[in-house]
Design goal:
Elements lengths: L1 H22 L6 E4 L6 E4 L4 E8 L7 H19 L5 E8 L9 H10 L3 H11 E2 L3 H7 L6 H14 L4 E2 L3 H5 L2 E5 L3 H12 L5 H20 L8 E2 L1 H10 L7 H6 L2 H16 L6 E5 L1 H6 L4 H12 L10 E4 L4 H13 L4 E2 L2 E2 L2 E2 L1 H6 L9 E5 L5 H6 L4 E5 L12 E5 L4 H7 L9
Parallel strand pairs: 3-4, 4-7, 9-10, 9-15, 10-14, 11-14, 15-16
Antiparallel strand pairs: 1-2, 1-8, 2-3, 5-6, 12-13
């Protein structure tokens, strides 16, 4: 568990550093999150700067703890130098004893003495000239067998001192910098200082910071480099136009959870204060799997809070992930037991959108509409005159529309969902 916490902390640190670098970009520059070369690639019209982040609060510095990222940079330098690319390499690292820098002699000594099998088999053919055709061939294999690795390691043990580097380590070192990084809380302060330059301090802290975090985390998960490329103008434009706090797993990890959920509840309060609004909830399969025992009580509580006055309030829509049809059927049956019939849009054995939209073939006193995600489209939601769509968890389709408000509520439990939508006044510990 401690290792998992340390890994998550490292990701959170990287996201903070990414936000800071984006906010410090010049007008003509852009930044690639999870770049081709390192964690952060900063692109200017004339050069590229790559940044690798390492954050270890409980680990003391050793050359072996930074050797792999530096070797990866050296590999890239070997390849880039042949095509004339001007690339600067930065290792941005924090350790418990937080050293000021690294001597090139220490790194060169590591290269000359390391017996690490993975390092030898994964990197050495990229930084040394290998005259043996067979060793070079198996070194370039995407997947190496155990015998391949043994042969490579044996070769290096016998010939290591005679191998010529593809580029001078000293030449690489002139393009490399080790930056003594700030502690986590100080880095966050620097991000808030930059955000306060574009808005007031309170907005920077309570709205812009969590939303910048959510924005960067979301972009970092995109598949293509183009989708992960961002400018300062892109980020600032997003922050200025986003009026509510965005929630995802990373913002809930990075920011005081109770304070963030309280602020989110307050920002959503106006949406749940209006009686005539039509609301729809889409539950992801992951959320349903983790909350199968509490989804029925949540729906009944929600109906008791927001569908007490059928003449004034509109019955909500609940959409279930496609892998939870049995749970959806159980919800429908349980509501029926409490004299709370449902409009499912099912005619015979098929979903008919006209029936779902126009309330045909269902009791006049139905309390909500329930269906599977596979039956729901933006068109269906628009025809149902939805005003607000809340997606609970992550789904693999887009349901956004300019005709209704869409909000992602990436909370893991129904307790937090109850709190956010105003069903519960307190957040359970």
């Amino acid at each position: 568990m401690r290792q998992a916490d340390s890994t998550i902390r490292g990701y959170l640190y990287q996201f903070n550093k990414s936000i800071l670098e984006i906010l410090r970009l010049s007008d003509d520059d852009s930044l690639v999150l999870e770049g081709v070369i390192e964690d952060i690639d900063i692109l200017s019209p004339t050069s590229t700067t790559t940044i690798q982040c390492k954050y270890h609060e409980d680990k003391k510095y050793t050359i072996s703890s930074v050797a792999v990222p530096i070797i990866e940079m050296l590999c890239n330098y070997c390849e880039s130098s042949y095509v004339g690319k001007d690339i600067r390499y930065v290792l941005y690292a924090f350790f418990a004893d937080n050293v000021d820098g690294i001597e090139v002699s220490d790194f060169r000594g590591f290269l000359n003495t390391t017996q690490d099998k993975e390092i030898l088999t994964k990197y050495f053919h990229r930084i040394f000239t290998i005259p043996d055709a067979f060793i070079l061939k198996i070194s370039n294999k995407a997947k190496k067998t155990a015998s391949d690795k043994d042969a490579i390691v044996s070769y290096y043990k016998a010939h290591r001192n005679s191998l010529s580097p593809r580029v001078s380590v000293d030449a690489f070192w002139s393009h490399f910098s080790y930056v003594k990084a700030e502690k986590y809380d100080r880095l966050k302060e620097l991000v808030l200082e930059e955000l306060s330059k574009i808005t007031d301090q309170e907005t920077a802290s309570t709205l812009y910071y969590p939303n910048a975090f959510s924005y960067v985390a979301s972009l970092s998960a995109k598949a293509s480099d183009r989708e992960r490329t961002v400018s300062k103008e892109d980020l600032v434009g997003f922050l200025v136009h986003q009026k509510t706090i965005l929630l995802n797993r990373w913002t809930l990890q990075a920011i005081d959870r109770k304070a963030l959920l309280k602020a989110k509840r307050e920002s959503l309060a106006s949406f749940f204060a209006s009686n005539p609004d039509m609301r729809a909830f889409v539950f992801s399969d992951v959320f349903l799997n983790n909350n199968s025992d509490t989804i029925i009580p949540f729906i009944r509580e929600y109906l008791g809070r927001y569908f007490r006055k059928p003449k004034l309030q509109k019955p909500p829509i609940f959409v279930f992930g496609d892998k939870n049809t049995d749970l959806m059927q159980n919800v429908i049956i349980e509501l029926y037991k409490y004299q709370q019939p449902v409009n499912t849009g099912i005619v015979g054995m098929q979903f008919v959108d006209d029936s779902f939209v126009n309330d045909n073939n269902c009791p006049n006193n139905y309390v909500c509409k329930i269906s599977q995600l596979c039956n729901i489209t933006t068109d269906v939601l628009e025809r149902c005159h939805v005003n607000q769509l809340f997606i609970v968890g992550s789904v693999d389709m887009s349901l956004e529309s300019k005709n209704y408000f869409t909000e992602l509520l990436a909370v893991p439990t129904t307790d937090e969902l109850r709190y956010l939508v105003g069903v519960s006044r307190t957040l359970e510990a």
